[in-house]
Design goal:
Length: about 350
């Protein structure tokens, strides 16, 4: 396999279709990321026919100590405006003719450290990193819920206490005539976005923190995503009369409903708008024939576990290059106290 690097300044240079299993690796998502987040010095990994979902960015471990980091496209930005794509992987179309050949071809490119964030146990990239002698740092758990044929079937699998709470929540929703509206068309999604932003930001300000939508670039990115009809985004609002009490943002992709972001009215006494929102979206997913509801990543023991989810470990993967500087980085990574500093810088 022959790989090269590309500045990729032209929109005519296409991303490889189906280059990974996540919605965050679709050509549409990556094109919007490139528009809003690409740095001038970024170099994208290319085959003769298309861009792969990988790029190299130069960062600084400390003043005077640069590191060229190979990453998944769509990752690697500053935390306050990080898009947080999760569970990226490399598809069979990227790994042909063999994973070892792909890694060998990547190894001939000019990078010092390979970093893959939020990777699932058993994924192709985890296997590649293990083959290359990489380092793995646990960073959370994926909470995914296989959906049964009916909501009652799902309720039957919950703990007694949480099942009772869900039923009380649904009864109150009926009593107060709450209703859910799911925006699917671009114009509807954009119209619903201000409610999501307002609820999300208000909740985080109450905690003394800035929500993710406080970053202008993050908000601009999602406005462009929601305006794009090729992105399977969904933005749902839960109403009590004319008041929005909760908002849900995510995607329906490859038979899975993915929960990406939310906003809640924290002044709902004795009522959990979060439970109401997720139960409503799960019920709609079942009716729509969706096979899985993915809560995405959370901490071990997260509230997400109460919904009856399967749990899969998630890790950050770091693989130093084999050249002299890469071996120096490997030595740093081998010292447990150096991991955090190196990880933050890279």
């Amino acid at each position: 396999m022959s790989l090269s690097l590309s500045v990729s300044a032209s929109d005519r240079q296409a991303w490889l279709e189906g280059s990974g299993p996540a919605v965050f690796q679709t050509p549409a998502w990556l094109q919007h990321w490139r528009t809003h987040y690409q740095h001038r010095g970024d170099r994208f990994v290319a085959r003769s026919d298309a861009l792969l979902p990988l790029y190299i960015r130069r960062r600084w471990l400390r003043p005077g100590v640069p590191v060229r980091t190979l990453r998944f496209a769509g990752t690697g930005d500053a935390e306050p405006e990080e898009l947080c794509p999760e569970f990226c992987d490399l598809s069979d179309g990227v790994l042909q003719p063999a994973p070892a050949d792909t890694w060998s071809a990547l190894g001939r490119l000019p990078w010092d450290l390979c970093r893959f964030d939020n990777c699932l146990r058993g994924s192709s990239v985890e296997n590649l990193a293990r083959h290359a002698g990489g380092f793995s740092q646990p960073c959370g758990v994926r909470y995914s819920l296989p959906l049964p044929a009916t909501l009652d079937d799902w309720l039957a699998g919950l703990s007694d206490s949480f099942r009772s709470k869900v039923r009380r929540t649904r009864q109150r929703m009926t009593r107060e005539q709450m209703h859910l509206h799911i925006a699917r068309a671009p114009a509807e999604r954009l119209a619903a976005l201000p409610a999501l932003v307002s609820l999300h930001q208000s909740r985080w300000r109450q905690r003394g923190e800035a929500g993710v939508f406080s970053a202008r670039r993050f908000l601009d990115f999602h406005q462009s995503v929601l305006a794009d009809p090729s992105v399977p985004a969904r933005l749902a609002l839960l109403y009590r009369d004319d008041e929005v009490v909760a908002a849900w943002y995510g995607f329906d992709f490859n038979g899975t409903r993915l929960f990406y972001q939310s906003g809640m009215d924290g002044a709902q006494s004795g009522f959990s708008p979060g439970i109401a929102l997720h139960v409503s979206m799960i019920e709609d997913a079942i009716v729509s024939g969706i096979r899985e509801y993915d809560f995405m990543k959370g901490e071990p023991g997260s509230w997400k576990a109460r919904f009856g989810c399967r749990q899969t470990p998630v890790s950050h993967l770091l693989v130093p290059a084999t050249h002299l500087y890469g071996r120096t980085l490997r030595s740093l990574l081998s010292r447990s106290r150096s991991w955090q500093a190196l990880e933050a810088g890279a």
